[in-house]
Amino acid sequence: MKTAKTQYLRGKQITQKPIPGDVTITTLVDEYFQAYNAARLREACHLLTQKMLKKDVTIGMSLTGALTPAGLGGTCIVPLMKAGFVDWLVSTGANLYHDAHFALGLSMHRGTPFIDDRILREEGVVRIYDVLFDYNVLLSTDEFFREIFKFPEFDKEMGTSELHYLIGKFVFEREKILGVKNHSILAAAYLYGVPVYTPSPGDSSIGMNIAAIKLKETNFKLDVFQDVNETAAIVLSAKRSGGKSGVFILGGGSPKNFMLQTEPQLQEVLKIDEKGHDYFLQITDARPDTGGLSGATPSEAVSWGKVDPSQLPDTVVVYNDSTIALPIITSYVLTKVKPRPLKKLYQRRKKLMDILYQEYIKSKKRHEK
Fold first, then answer.
1. Where are the domains of the chain?
2. Within 10 A of 173 (CB to CB), how many other CB atoms are there?
């Protein structure tokens, strides 16, 4: 007869087996990430491979913090997109801007944070913690954006998914001309049909260059409210088609909240019957008790309707640095899971919006009775 005590002791025993010198990532994670945040990282890998990356789950990724200057765009995020493991993306504009440096053949360098920044300023070197690069990298990237924004494709009102699709088209063509073999995030998004959103488009160098263009007469205008409905439509369609919705959050900030608010938009504002995201995975170094864990914990998100309460066990928060955790997770899932068919949600946006609108009209009629 099982006792209450035995149910708590069913976990695998902690091992002291020495780690071999040629250990693989999968063995390292499965056998040696045994406790504390190493265990949470193992649970994150298992949640992805065993549940989140099933074919019927639509995965949204949010991207915050200076990750692309450290190379995580090309090394991790693009391979995940190519494998069909990221179906839509919410990012700060800064990450998309700095990722474009690589597509334009410009270089970023490993360095050290322990330098007198006054000297760097005199020498024309810019520092992002321990990433160093020539100030001309910024000027060249700015010039590229201002030049493409002059094309007629941009002379209209659009959401940020269309903005990034158009930028991705130009970036991809520049990569081909320069012979850049590894795609940038926006070029990959263009190729694989992954819609990319930025909730605060003015808060980055991309937005600053759009602002410069708007000093002249132009119809170029961004509609971020279109993004609110598009992202809600992505989540609703995933659920209504019999599938599930999962969020993979790197950091916090506005991208995290923008991704999670899709469910309150459906339930609270549009009055559409919904329960919340099915899977929640976050890599963060923030704390909830100071108010600094943007969007809060999965359990707190349940109270907002952001996460399905019945799915709360299928949530993992890894308190770690994304630059450490993401390469490990990427290697693990690419080893364990076969590529999924690309959902190409960008090309399906109109159909998804039609589903959202129809559900909204039905809900409105129901609540008016």
1. 50-364
2. 13
